[in-house]
Automatic annotation (TrEMBL):
Its main location: membrane. This is ABC transporter related protein. Residues 59-329 form the ABC transmembrane type-1 domain. The lineage of its organism: Bacteria, Bacillati, Bacillota, Bacilli, Bacillales. It is found in: Cell membrane. PROSITE patterns: ABC_TM1F (PS50929), ABC_TRANSPORTER_1 (PS00211), ABC_TRANSPORTER_2 (PS50893). CDD domains: ABC_6TM_exporters.
Length: 599
């Protein structure tokens, strides 16, 4: 196996570890975070070692200061050499901070950045596996917020734990050990701060968690609405609704502002409460050690040392309490991401039949479909046989079930009763990802990405020759248009193909379908939004596309399906008529009445 392939396999295994950890509902957010660092824990350990070395001046300074004060207050018992030794020790401990800080951050960043990238990759992987229904129900802006904001919050949580939380714990432990080595009485006083800090966290924990959750939900809503607003800008401008859209967004932003304000106030009250509490503790510590020094139980210099250690403990506890809201925010992001990683609405192809060839013969056997939570049948007893290479069109009123049939053919939906067979095999038993390689879909709304025309035609394909591209361009009736463009096939189409007309975008979609040489074509109202001239060009391209291929067409414009081998008329989820164009017109049934309405 090559290094590249091995690295790719390692990444996939790492992502699967994320998904497996997310599926364990007994895992706490902290345990889940710990699982994410599997394979990177040694980097964290090394980073922690360098942190303790670089952080050593914090512990050394109070001891050296106390030594110098004690030497200065009792010169007869000490020499100037002792002063210089203390000074050199302090100086070296300070200078070493530069290289050790570099290594501390370097090893930590390797681990944190690797987890951040792996987490986003696991989310992208999961989003590609989730069902089409899941994506329809969850708005795109919310998913973007989870991939971008929540993954970033978890990265921030990792850094807070490594750079604030864990160092604070270490500071408290070391300060208590150093204090206990000198005076058990003073160390017992220090330990009283720990239950006080636990009490403060307990009192504010629920409120902080609740406000963080509300704020996160509001951020997701805002992200979703901003995404909608950007997509709606042409419609908004065309109808002069800029002020309406601004007012709608202002309402969302005011709601977000209110949730953010409540979160800030909660965190501010939390911070001020712990600051006041621990300042009072520090005053008590000063009085206590001064009292001991006054009665000669400790040297005067030790007052400074104990005050330094106690200040370190209070600073660490204060840091823990101040960082707690951010940790709570990170844990809320873990909950948010696990909502996606835990979803069971996935397309599982494990162990299913991998079709190497598809002739294109389909059979619908008493197919029924009901959406979850809805008693109404979208399809109710659909039975139909489609021969290989046949072109069949579906017509009917909106909501009759036409597009649902196409979704069954692509495997986006599965029937709640009955069977859909391809070449005699139940689609429920077929590896859909492999099966779809034999399909091409031309939707009503063409989806292009912001690359070149060539990139959009050859999307996802490798080793495509220039001759193949030129041939499908000609078949899709695109040659004249491309010749007029200054950069030809390498012309950039803009976001969603915004620089092209609807007809041009549709013909590019047809070229994309042609270059795959599929056995099955699905055309979902591919010409309904086009003018007559554009429709003429697209129809010519479609004639090339469907030659010798099993073709499913959904059309509202009935004149466009005159040449279909058969037409199936649908009504209320059932097929009520099947025949050629001329046969259905002659029967003067449902199709005839639909055609009369368009005259």
């Amino acid at each position: 196996m090559s290094k590249t392939a091995a690295a790719a396999a390692s990444v996939v295994d790492y992502e699967r570890t994320f998904e497996a950890a997310a599926m364990d509902k007994t895992q706490s957010p902290l345990r889940f975070l710990f699982t994410l660092y599997q394979g990177n824990r040694m980097n964290l350990v090394i980073s922690l070692i360098f942190f303790m070395i670089k952080h050593s001046p914090i512990f050394i300074l109070p001891i050296v200061t106390a030594n110098m004060i004690n030497i200065a207050t009792n010169p007869s018992a000490h020499t100037t050499r002792e002063l210089w030794i203390n000074f050199i020790v302090l100086g070296v401990s300070i200078i070493q901070n530069i290289p050790t800080q570099h290594f501390h951050v370097s090893f930590m960043s390797r681990a944190v950045r690797h987890v951040e990238a792996g987490l986003r990759s696991a989310l992208v992987r999961k989003l590609q596996q989730l069902s089409i229904n899941y994506h329809r129900e969850l708005q795109a802006g919310m998913l973007q917020s989870k991939v971008l904001r929540d993954a970033e919050s978890i990265e921030g949580l990792s850094k807070q734990l490594m750079m604030s939380f864990l160092p604070s714990i270490i500071n408290i432990v070391i300060a208590c050990i150093l204090t206990a080595r000198n005076s058990l009485t003073v160390s017992m006083f220090f330990l009283m701060t720990i239950p006080a800090s636990v009490l403060v966290i307990y009192l504010f924990r629920r409120n902080i968690r609740r406000t963080n959750k509300e704020f996160r939900k509001e951020i997701e809503q805002m992200s979703s609405r901003v995404s909608e607003m950007v997509e709606m800008i042409p419609v908004t401008r065309a109808h002069g609704l800029e002020k309406v859209e601004i007012a709608r967004m202002d309402n969302t932003l005011r709601s977000l502002q209110g949730k953010g304000y409540r979160l800030d106030i909660t965190e501010a009250f939390f911070g001020s409460s712990n600051w006041v509490l621990f300042q009072l503790f520090q005053i008590c510590c000063l009085l206590f050690t001064i009292y001991l020094a006054y009665h000669g139980k400790i040297p005067v210099g030790d007052v400074v040392m104990y005050q330094g250690f106690f200040g370190m403990i209070l600073g660490s506890i204060t840091s823990l309490l101040n960082v707690y809201p951010n940790i709570a925010k990170g844990f809320e992001s873990i909950h948010s991401i696990r909502e996606v990683l835990r979803s069971q609405e996935i397309e599982d192809n494990t162990g299913k039949l991998k079709l190497t060839e598809v002739s294109g013969e389909f059979s619908f056997r008493d197919v029924k479909l009901v959406y979850p939570g809805n008693e109404h049948h979208v399809l109710d007893g659909v039975t139909l046989d489609v021969r290989a290479g046949e072109c069949i069109a579906f017509v009917g009123e909106s909501g009759a079930g036409k597009s649902t049939v196409l979704n069954l053919v692509t495997g986006f939906l599965m029937p709640t009763a009955g069977q859909v067979l391809v070449d005699g095999v139940d689609l429920a038993d077929v590896d859909l990802s492999r099966y779809r390689k034999h399909l091409s879909v031309v939707p009503q709304t063409t989806i292009l990405f912001s690359g070149s025309i060539r990139d959009n035609i050859t999307y996802g394909l490798k080793n495509i020759t220039e001759e193949q591209v030129r041939r499908v361009v000609e078949m899709a009736n695109l040659s004249e248009m491309i010749e007029r463009l200054p950069q030809g096939l390498d012309t950039m189409v803009g976001e969603h193909g915004g620089k092209l007309s609807g007809g041009q975008r549709q013909r590019i979609a047809i070229a994309r379908a042609l270059i795959r040489d599929p056995r099955v074509i699905i055309l979902d109202e591919a010409t309904s939004a086009l003018d007559n001239q554009s429709e003429h060009h697209v129809q010519k391209a479609m004639q090339e596309l469907i030659k010798g291929r099993t073709t499913f067409i959904v059309a509202h414009r009935l004149s466009t399906i005159r040449d279909a081998d058969r037409i199936a008329v649908m009504k209320q989820g059932r097929i009520v008529e099947v025949g050629t164009f001329d046969e259905l017109m002659a029967s003067k049934g449902e199709f005839y009445h639909l055609k009369q309405l368009q005259l």
